[in-house]
Amino acid sequence: MNSPRDELVPNAMRARRLHVDTYQEPVVYMREDCVVCRSEGFAAQARVQIDFAGRRVVATLNVVHGDWLAVGDAGLSESAWGALLPTEGATLIISQAPALDSLSHVRAKIYGHRLDPDALGAVIADVALGRYSDIHLAAFITACAGDRLDVDETIALTKAMIGVGERLDWGRERVVDKHCVGGLPGNRTTLLVVPIVAACGLVMPKTSSRAITSPAGTADTMEVLAPVELSTAAVRRVVEQTGACIVWGGSVGLSPADDILIRVERPLDLDSEGQLVASVLSKKAAAGSTHVLVDLPVGPTAKVRSIEAGQALGRRLVEVGTAIGLRVALRFTDGMQPVGRGIGPALEARDVLAVLRGAPDAPQDLRERALRLAADILELGGAAQSGHGSALAQQVLADGRAWEKFQAICEAQGGMRAIPAAAHRLEITAARSGQVRAVDNRVLARAAKLAGAPRAPAAGVEVHVRLGEAVRVGQPLFTLHAQAPGELDYAQRFVASRPPIFAISESA
Predict the structure, then answer these.
(1) What does the angle CA 274 – CA 275 – CA 277 come to, to the nearest 5 degrees?
(2) In this predicted structure, which of 51-60, 114-123, 179-188, 475-484 has the lowest mean pLDDT?
(3) Cα(70)–Cα(67) distance, integer angstroms
(4) 8 A C-beta contact, residue 430 and residue 471
(5) What is the CATH number of domain 424-504?
(6) First to last CA, the chain
(7) Is 60 exceeded by the pLDDT of residue 2?
């Protein structure tokens, strides 16, 4: 119960936890006939400011009709409740959200105008403060999609993202990192590269993203094996102990605006070039990296469709990196087919452990790709002379030092976990005999997502064949993994409705 004094506070309402998941967007629910709604002229989808005990959040208003919420109660979504941390029935102060002057810049971009550093800085500052609703965020993301950000705008966006978060300093001349631009299912090389490189004495504090448009991000896969939501202090401790980490960047607050944008990019299935570059490099710079290797898989159904497009993206990565003080190196890799056998967090984690442990049935393509990237980083970071990185990387993986380092990283991050298995599986078989000529990576990734990945860690796709391999009619091509029978059926119906994911010639 509120005290009489509390009830005299203007715009005061009682906090009610509704246990509603609004996908990280703060939402408040209020009755249409409540005093605050009437006095402030609040309407549905209005942006309101909520204050409690020195904490503040800007939330989207949903107006309630009916008696399930009492007059004077403000029902909070889980995101809003977590931001404010009130007690049930505590007094909240509800007011109009501050005017969003930066939205004028978003509108200008929608109409095709260039944005200068001040404009982009204002937008990103408001994004980081949580002042943009998901509708506003979607407008900004869409306005910048495609090729609508030039190099100068991308540099300004990157600097703005760095400026609103923390920035780590490791006190070293060289701190290495890697990133893959994505678009290739199962390409989980980071979990192999990091322990190889760290075992050779280089510092590699790897902050990774969760999935944006893929069935698994690096953080999703690592989370199957060890905790990834670490504080900045915990990240420092892990890196000091082991020389490396593999954590979710969103928990560290190094580029908070980017994490907010990613939350909306995921359902929009948008990942534009300028925002991709700004996202990647802002986090690398914020994590204290000095030398970064970028993996660019190229293939007709990968994110980068041609070598020409890859070179253009690479030039922008290098140019923007130089502008913010990063040395960026590029590696173009084969993007014609999935890497490894697993697509989805748990299935990819299983592949990673097989390679680290030197299992005879470990996917060799994943192993070789990781070794090639590790070799580049060892040379980039000065741990190996030019041309000698490959031999060093192979030695460290073969003699078990990489596996020991990975275990040490997992233990430092909170302890190694067992890999879960899916409750439901369905094999998809070849409709004809012949030779595998092509793989549609995008459709295969979509099938894994419809099966429940990455939300259900054990869900995804297990691939059984490779390009050029001879298959016979009825032979398993891939297996769908799901935690729920409905999701398995959903994924199966999607696969059945599409042209064959694996194109098979009539004869081998």
Answers:
(1) 65
(2) 179-188
(3) 6
(4) yes
(5) 3.90.1170.30
(6) 77
(7) no
- The CATH label, of 3.30.110.30, 2.40.50.140, 3.40.50.300, 3.40.1030.10, for the domain at 176-252+287-412 is 3.40.1030.10
pLDDT at 30: 94
State the Cα–Cα distance between residues 146 and 149, nearest whole angstrom.
Answer: 8
Q: What are phi and psi of 179, to 5 degrees?
A: -150, 145
At 3, the pLDDT band (50, 70, 90 cuts) reads: very low
Assess whether the region 103-163 and the region 424-504 belong to the same CATH fold. Answer: no
Which residue blocks in 188-344 are alpha helix, DSSP H? 190-199, 218-225, 232-242, 256-268, 273-286, 307-323
Go through 180-200 and write b for each residue having 16 or more CB atoms within 10 A of its CB, e for each that does not: bbbbbbbbbbbbbbbbbbbbb
Distance of CA 329 to the CA centre of its chain: 22
Check residue 17 and report its DSSP letter. Answer: E
Instruction: Please name the residues in contact with 131: beta carbons below 8 A apart, sequence gap of 6 or more.
Output: 47, 58, 97, 98, 100
Cα distances (Å, whole numbers) of residue 391 to 371, 385, 388, 394, 487: 9, 11, 6, 5, 44
pLDDT, tens digit, 9 for 90 and up, residues 483-493: 999 999 999 99
> Residue 437: is its pLDDT beyond 60?
yes
Q: Which CATH class is domain 103-163?
A: mainly alpha
Whether 181 contacts 304, CB under 8 Å: yes
For residue 249, what pLDDT is reported? 81
Q: Which fold has domain 4-96?
A: Barwin-like endoglucanases (2.40.40)
* Token pair listed for 60: 């989207």
Q: Label residues 341-370 b or e (16+ Cβ within 10 Å = b).
A: bbbbbbbbbbbbbbbbeeeeebbebbbebb
Q: How many CB atoms lie within 10 A of CB 323?
A: 16
Ranges of each domain in the chain: 4-96, 103-163, 176-252+287-412, 424-504
Q: Is the peptide bond between 457 and the residue preceding it cis, with omega within 30 degrees of 0?
A: no
> Cβ–Cβ contacts within 10 Å for residue 254, how many?
26
Q: Rounded to two decimals, what is the model's pTM?
A: 0.86
Residues with a known catalytic role: 271
What is the amino acid identity at position 263? R
